[in-house]
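Our preliminary data section would be incomplete without showing what the modeling component actually yields. Below, a chain of 712 amino acids is followed by its predicted structure, encoded as tokens that our downstream tools consume directly.
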Amino acid sequence: VTLYVLEGAPQGRIYQVYATDPENAELKYSLLPAPVPFLVLENGDIFSTKVFDYEKDQHCYFLNITVTDPGGLNLTKTVNINIININDERPYFTTKQRIYRIKEEQSPGTFVANITAKDPDDEDSPSRLFYSIQSSGRYFSINPSTGVLQVTRRIDRDALPLRLHPNISVIVRVEDSPSGGHASEMEITIFIEDINDNSPECNPSTFRKEANENMTAGTFLLQLRNYCADTDIDPSNNQFNFTGLSGFGSNNFALESTVSGTLVMTGSIDLENPANLGVEVYSLTVRVQDIAYPDYSSNSVIFPDIIHIYIRIKPVNEFFPVFSNLSYEFNVPEITKVGSSIGRVSARDKDWPPSVITYSILAGGGTRDYTNIFWISPTKGDVRILARLDYETTQKHILIVQASDQEKTATASVTVNVLEVNDEEPFCSPNFYSFQIPVSLAVGTNINGFKIECKDRDSDPRSFRYFIDEGNVNNHFTFSPSAGSNTSRLILASRFDYESGLDTNWIYRLRVYITDDNLLSARDKATQLIKTGTVTLKIRVIPNPTTVVATTPSFTVVTKKENLYSDSAWYVPFIITLSSLLLLGLLGYLAFLLVTWLRTHCPPAGKADRMSLIHFTFCLSSQTMTKLNTVFDGEARDPVTGKIYEFNTRSGARRWKKSSDPLQPALGMQVTSSATDDDGQGTDRVQAPTKKEPSEKIKEPTGETKPAALPS
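Predicted structure:
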């Protein structure tokens, strides 16, 4: 007989053996002595005496059971009891390692670890377990059957959060059944190791710098390390250096340190040097690369980063401007037109690029009327005249001209020689004369001893010629000498003949011309400038004169003034118009105030008085007389002196009553003055007192009542 007992089953009856006897006798069962955890009763019941554990106890028991009848006959049989294993144990991990290390940037599927476990319930057979990851399944996965842990995605040690925390914790779970079984968990830690997978990068990778051309060797320009970085976290992987300085003009520069990338100048750069002429910008390149050997999964070499550097050489103003000549000399005729160019100065310096030269006049060129009669073009150096030159005043002007390149200056002298030109007219004295001569004056006589004396600022005294151009009818007059002297006398050249009718004019108005061309040849007269002066003579011929009266030269100056409107004075009529309007408005406002005052202070005219004009005319005068002729309409006694005084009930004016005046009772009336009647006589109006004007009580009443008003 074979019995099966589940492990973990409680103690108790598990089976009953049964035997038959031909005599149907009562049988008894017994267990041969043996160290087994079972008990057999006489009725054949088999009981277990313990709870079996398949993993700790025997898996099979053999019970020798004897059955005996009353006669002592027996039979022994063997019962085979097998303990059946059940799933009552948790699987456990057989892998003891808890910490693993892998490098970053491993490709997906890379092996990390093989996690193994066992199930005590599967002691005699291969365990059938199921593996899974409970946490951090972001980077890793596990084979559910074999327990192989592998990489599932990119792992970047240099990116967050691994840059700060490079370890990854993984919870691995093992189960002995896909569902509803026993399970165990284990935490493993995977450290991510950094590799040299990043090349250094520079931001910016292009630099533009400026340097003066006169900088000395060793002058600092740029430190590249301040702009470059390697993102590898491990110090052994983020080291880099700078090499390979090259490019146009790289011989003028050097990397002082390959570690810091300090760029310096090897010497000054002279832009004026023909070898550097026209070169202002140098283009350089520098390589930046890792020191550690690269560790790329896809590349075997590292690609260096290239830095581009553009250095502009700034020109320095090193040289002074230099004039083309140390001094300049210009010969200018004195009649040169104002604004004309009389010459040009030029200066330049050796700086490259060429400096912009500006010109100015520092000194010289002044006259009595002008601060400077010369002007120089600031950019071109042209010298021009601003006022007319005068040889007779100044024959030579010396100017100090400055050339400037905004920083440095140079000066040169400019001599302007004013060339004399016959530009002055002869001036004669007197230039007007009036006199009388007798009709019988002898030919050849110096008329009244008259002579003219001429001057010319730019001509020799011998250069004058005299001739009468107008008014010399019948050529009675001439000058002697007619040329070659600065003085000449008026001579009567022929007699007057009024009797025959040859002469009819008794008054001669002579216009005398004086030219300064006497010393010129006929050829020069056609080419050179000739100036002419004039003198006017008035000669009266007196028939049968008794006395010749010499007149004193005189002239009358007539000054004419005109008021002309100027466009620039547009504001004058505007201001005058505006002022007139304001004045007119003010006068109107004052008139309005006057009318308002008259209506307020003058009482209306009576019914009989219909002439409003007369009423308003005499209103002021009547009020004035009311003030002057005060009516004392009441009397009272002074309590101190006992004297009687009169008073006006309206104004309160008082006066002592004269002893000759009778005592007047206080009337309950008010007397006022009114305007005159139509016949010119003044009238009084008696008005009853109003509530606002109560009358005074009379302390000493009298027997009669009479009005106290006096005509005004």
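Confidence is low (pLDDT under 50) at residues 297-301, 606-628, 662-712. The radius of gyration is 73 Å. Preliminary results of this kind motivate Aim 1 of the renewal.
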